[in-house]
Fold this protein.
Amino acid sequence: MKVTRIMANVATDDLGKAQAFYGDLLGLDRMMDHGWFQTYGSAETMTVQLSFGSQGGSGTAVPDLSIEVDDLDEALKRMQQAGVPVEYGPVSEPWGVRRFYVRDPFGRLLNILQHQ
């Protein structure tokens, strides 16, 4: 047996917030929509990963999700234009990533990062 996909599920009564944040701001495609359950994703090939930590690095909280992007400056600009507060960063970390933390509309702490 091998794991072929891991999906994060977030409970909400307002699916429109998911579209506004994950679709509009982060550019993910709505891959599935049952009306009561939506899945956002990308056609990009990704590796399956599940991380565990006692901290998020540099003394930060462990984020709920880490989202790697190809243009951190553009992601930051979109968050700022949408009025999403940045809780940490942007900062270049000693382990080779540049990143910042924000919260999604559901209160989840997100680590938005780009490998350097």
Q: What stands out?
A: The chain has two helices and six strands.
